[in-house]
C-alpha cells in the first residue's frame, strides 16, 4: 500500500505552548483515519498544518512524494471541512462552491459541471441558487463537504464536521460520509472528540493527548479512553 500522507517529526509551538510534539504519522492511500482525543490535544493543529493554514515549528509533511511544508494552501490538493462550515453567508450555494474553483482558473462550464456533480454526491441536487443562510444545519454541512470535494482533492480533511448536529442527523451523515469516502476512495483525516463516532467510521484511529499520538490502531484495538 502506498502512503498518501506522511508527517515526519512534526511539532508546533504557539509561543511557549506546545500544541503538537514530534509527531510522525502515515496515512495510506484511500484510508479513513480518525483523530480523537480531548479538547486541546492538538487534533485541529495536525489538520491545519496539512492544509497549510499553520506552519510547523519543526519537521516535514509529505503528500505522496511531495514535501509540502512550505507550499501555500491552494497548491496542496487538500479539501477541508470546518467544524462551523465556514460558508460565505451572503453567497449562494453555487458561489460558495465556485469560489475555490475560480481560484484554480477553471473554465466556466467546467465549474458548473463540477457544482452539479458534487451537489449530487451530497444529495442536494438543484440547490445551486439557494442562500446558505436559508439551509438547515445538515444541509449546510453537506454544502461544506461538496465545496471541499469540488476541487477534486487528493486528501479530504474534516474537523469535527458533524459536531454541531443533533444525534439523529449525525447518525445519518456518518453513514453518508463513509459511503462517499469509500466510493471516491479518497484518503481522509477526520477529527472528532466523539470516540464512538471514530470507532464506527474509521479504518484506523489515532488517539492524541497533549500534542502526541498515544496509540494508532484499527478500531477493534482501541481500548484507550481519551
Ligand atoms: P484540539 O483540536 O485537540 O482541541 P488544538 O489543536 O485546537 O487542539 O489545540 C492544541 C493546543 O494549542 C491547545 O493548547 C490550544 O489552546 C493551542 N492553540 C491552538 N491554536 C492556537 C493559536 N492560534 N494560538 C495559540 N494557541 C493555540
Ligand atoms: P477545537 O477544539 O475544535 O480545535 P478551539 O475552540 O480549540 O477548537 O479553537 C478554535 C480556533 O481558535 C482554532 O483556529 C485554534 O487555532 C484557535 N485557538 C485555539 N486556542 C487558542 C489560543 N489559546 N489562542 C489563540 N487561538 C487559539
Automatic annotation (TrEMBL):
Q: Summarize which stretch of the complete protein this chain spans.
A: 1 to 226 of 354
Segments forming domain ABC transporter: 5-226
Query: Where in the cell does this protein reside?
Result: Cell membrane
Instruction: Spell out the family assignment given in the record's similarity comment.
Output: Belongs to the ABC transporter superfamily. Sulfate/tungstate importer (TC 3.A.1.6) family.
Summary of subunit composition and partner proteins: The complex is composed of two ATP-binding proteins (WtpC), two transmembrane proteins (WtpB) and a solute-binding protein (WtpA).
Give the membrane topology: Peripheral membrane protein
Kindly state which reaction or reactions the protein catalyses: tungstate(in) + ATP + H2O = tungstate(out) + ADP + phosphate + H(+)
- Stated role: Part of the ABC transporter complex WtpABC involved in molybdate/tungstate import. Responsible for energy coupling to the transport system.
Class of enzymatic activity (EC top level):
translocase
Q: Which UniProt keywords apply?
A: ATP-binding, Cell membrane, Membrane, Molybdenum, Nucleotide-binding, Translocase, Transport
EC number(s) reported in the record:
7.3.2.6
Q: Name one GO molecular function term.
A: ATP binding
Q: What is this protein called?
A: Molybdate/tungstate import ATP-binding protein WtpC
Where does the UniProt entry say this protein principally localizes?
membrane
One GO cellular component term: ATP-binding cassette (ABC) transporter complex
Amino acid at each position: 500500500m502506498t502512503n498518501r500522507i506522511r508527517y515526519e517529526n512534526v511539532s508546533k509551538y504557539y509561543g511557549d505552548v506546545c500544541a503538537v510534539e514530534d509527531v510522525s504519522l502515515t496515512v495510506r492511500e484511500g484510508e479513513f483515519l480518525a483523530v480523537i482525543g480531548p479538547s486541546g490535544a492538538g487534533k485541529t493543529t495536525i489538520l491545519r498544518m496539512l492544509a497549510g493554514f499553520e506552519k510547523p515549528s519543526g519537521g516535514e509533511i509529505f503528500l505522496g512524494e511531495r514535501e509540502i511544508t512550505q507550499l501555500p494552501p491552494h497548491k496542496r490538493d487538500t479539501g477541508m471541512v470546518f467544524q462551523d462550515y465556514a460558508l460565505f453567508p451572503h453567497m449562494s450555494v453555487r458561489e460558495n462552491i465556485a469560489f475555490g474553483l475560480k481560484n484554480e482558473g477553471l473554465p466556466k462550464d467546467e465549474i458548473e459541471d463540477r457544482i452539479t456533480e458534487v451537489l449530487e454526491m451530497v444529495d442536494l441536487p438543484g440547490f445551486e441558487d439557494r442562500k446558505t443562510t436559508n439551509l438547515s444545519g445538515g444541509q449546510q454541512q453537506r454544502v461544506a463537504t461538496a465545496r471541499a470535494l469540488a476541487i477534486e482533492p487528493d486528501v479530504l480533511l474534516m474537523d469535527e464536521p458533524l459536531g454541531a448536529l443533533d444525534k439523529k442527523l449525525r447518525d445519518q451523515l456518518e453513514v453518508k460520509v463513509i459511503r462517499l469516502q469509500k466510493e471516491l476512495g479518497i484518503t481522509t483525516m477526520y477529527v472528532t472528540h466523539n470516540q464512538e463516532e471514530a470507532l464506527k467510521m474509521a479504518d484506523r484511529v489515532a488517539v492524541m493527548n497533549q500534542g502526541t499520538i498515544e496509540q494508532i490502531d484499527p478500531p477493534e484495538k482501541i481500548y484507550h479512553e481519551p
